[in-house]
Amino acid sequence: MKRLALIAALLLGAGTLAAYRPYSQGARSKAAWMTVSAIKTGQEYYLEVAQDGRAVMRTETPLSLVTRRGTIKSVLVKDFFREIENSEIVNSQNVKQSKMVFYRGDMMKISAYISGELTRTVAPLNNFGEAFAYAFGEVKKAVAALPEETAVRAFLRAEPVEGEELDSFRGKAAVDGEVKPIETTDLQKIKPLMAAIKEPHRLIPIENEASMKELQDFISARQLYGLRTLFYVPSTRGTYKCQVLEITRKQAAPAPKKPVPARKPAPKKKR
Length: 271
Fold this sequence. Notes:
By secondary structure, this protein is an alpha+beta fold. Helices cover about 30% and strands about 25% of the residues.
């Protein structure tokens, strides 16, 4: 009897551990999102692609912001995911950050599911190899041709807070010497926020004004540290810095120049 009880307890414990795994291993096992930044110019763009071909690109420059969203050919996605899974630098368990002191090219920060586990790799783009670069370029080209997205209200992104930044946050946000974490059951009520925390660095759509208001009301009710567009969420999963990002921004049209009045001819001198 005791043996049966012990087995039951072990099975229950295993079920609990599986339930609290931070990332599911099912439907989301084929998704990747990345940010590519140019060291020389400081400009960057975000690219996301899923197994079914759904894709997003958000490109920001000092003058404009354009988001594209739609579906690309499945063969391009298949080739790209194959190169991600075969990439030595993505699969490395020891080094997840690879930098070159004098490297002045593009840097890539990529999140992808490898064998059901969400990985994060930061490295120069040319470190991923020629085959990866080619497949990535084909996907990027296809997504860049998608129509502009204007219907979505905004994006929400969550990033883990660690080290000195976490200490600084705790020092500023603590009440009576502590920062109380928000339970997962409460976070689940705000679907975009829960999705952003489950998949850090991914841009989660806030589909409409009602969803935006729900998020803002949650921020106010919980008195979260920060602003409505940049705030911190202490949770049982860790502390996250969350940011609401715009979908589009157009360069303002320059004001029309006033015509320069023609100069009057100088009067002729009398002789």
